[in-house]
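Appendix B. One record, verbatim.
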Amino acid sequence: MLSLDSVYRASFALKGVIRRTDLIRAPKLNSCSDICLKPENLQITGSFKVRGAYYKISQLNEEEKARGVIACSAGNHAQGVALAAAKAGTKAVICLPDAAPISKVEATRAYGAEICTVEGAYDDAYEKAVQLRDEMGYTFIHPFDDEQVIAGQGTLGLEILEQAPDIEAVVVAVGGGGLLSGVGYVIKTLRPDIKVYGVQASGAASMVRSLHDDKIERLPSVSTIADGIAVKQPGSLTFELCKTYADDIVTVTDDEISSAILFLIESQKLIAEGAGAAPVAAAMFNKLPIEGKKTMCLVSGGNIDVTILSRIITRGLMKTGRYCAMKIELVDKPGQLKGVASLIAELGGNVVSVNHERSSETADVNGCYLRIIMETRNYEHIQEIRSALTNAGYKLC
């Protein structure tokens, strides 16, 4: 059974292996709360997952190590297992969903693991891993529904209490629930007065739905930029632990997650993946009752797919009113573009893209469309520009 002793044993086993990540204040995140970050995106392998994976593999006997280990993952657990297996001198086979970022796949391969890609999401990779375990006799290292893995993740709870004994609320991301189970168990056992909250992506809210229905539910599909928490079904052990130790679990949208990633880059100089930014998004957009509370948001990972980073930043800019697209119907005559551009410039907007189209869509045969993308300060600034264009006689579509 999960116990504080097992978490302390895990903490001892991890000494000299992992980094002890410091807390970082984030005063601009939410003006109504005193928020700090626990940057596990700076952990070795770029994620907290190495804690549970390493402790689990360190507890295997020689026979289990000799058979080799197998795991399934969206990428972060894979790297933790691969690293731990390499240090233990045992073979590692990792089943990864085919949509896993190439950067995570190649990082896992670099640690010496054998890669097996599986069509679908994490849960499909899990089924393949179980099949290979039964066929080949590998030792299965579950990413979240395992007491020793949860104990390893629980070491974060010990660190948080040591580093911030006056903390009043802790916010962590939830996929299968291993992190929330470990951190929630430790904090609620040692300090039941502290609130523990979980955050899921709205496109993969399996734990939220399961807790709402008071039974484990399996989603037909998941869709989110937070690939690290894109899990269709929580574990049976984590479901019970989250039900017992979490005060609440909320959801955030992909646009909110994108805004949080952008905030961490600009204000904190931190790179976070979608799953790592989910708790920050919940604090940014007031999804939790943390007003006036000293709150810790766990940035659980930083292994973002850099090929989609620019798109995520753009979504974050649009969500916060700093990037705006407008479509204006004009009469096709000289000077129209100059008039629109001058008005926008006078109000401080920065036009970054212009597309001029003659089209039969307009009511006027001499009409045309002007599509403009601009950088703006906020939503109030966008409305100021829209109002000025309308007052000047331009028709916005």
